[in-house]
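Worked example 3. Consider a protein that binds zinc ion.
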Amino acid sequence: MPAISETILDFTSFHVGYCSGPLAMTQRGAPWRIGRFPAGIAVLRHPVRGTILFDTGYGKLFGEATAAFPERIYRWLTPVTFDADDSLPKQLQKRGIAQPDLVFLSHLHADHVSGLFDLHAIPPVITSRQAIEKLTATRLATLKAGCPALIRDKLQSLNLQAVESLPCVSLATYGLEAFGNGYDLLGDQSALVVELPGHGFGQTGLFLPATTQGAIFLVADAIWSLEALRQNRLPPDMTLRRLGDRNAFLEIFAKLRAFHLANPQVRIMASHCMEAYPLNSHGERG
Ligand SMILES: [Zn+2]
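Given these inputs, the predicted complex is written out as structure tokens:
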């Protein structure tokens, strides 16, 4: 295994479907017009550990899981555009990327996990212990937590590995000491799991010190856009109230902003950020 920082991960990112909703729900002062929010994912290729996915976007299962009530409400709130031609396996294939060897899920919201079930074979999947524990919630509670029952059941049938079982590492070397300790995903500190609580249950992100596109911090839904972080614009109260833990969200937002100001060279990628995952008017990559 290469020593710390010797590994340069090959980095690719794209979106797997998108949803639509009022921009004003994600950022104070934003207009009420309907915006599009890509379901962004990342593919990391490691010389020894193979292909690793960071989240999986939308998939066929989302349609099935939200066909009946009460789950159908999810579709009403955030109408989804997902074309089977742009499914996760098809997009991987188009880019010449092999079947993944590992899937890392930032959190278990349907727009991050549905695509997993379109893969021809499901590789080992890793996510946080808190996210795994919340899978025992009732049908309504799991829906409220962003994971319709059918998707919850499919996730439960997998042997999910907890991030906390990975070796613990100090994040101070990377200027991330405010986030506590991290976990070493691939055994050589080329991908560090960072806890980003507040949005959903047990959300985590990945800090990648060295990739083919420079240093990258995949922050999942800890922020909706980089613009919001730059301008220090929080989501409105009605959105904050619906999050897993409002205070934790605010704390993480402030820490990310401080990190961004101190480390502008690190590319911060939020899963639904148009800067990270540009869409043109047809919803295709711009
Ligand atoms: Zn989410």
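Take a moment to read the result before moving on. The longest strand covers residues 10-22. The chain is about 25% helix and 25% strand.
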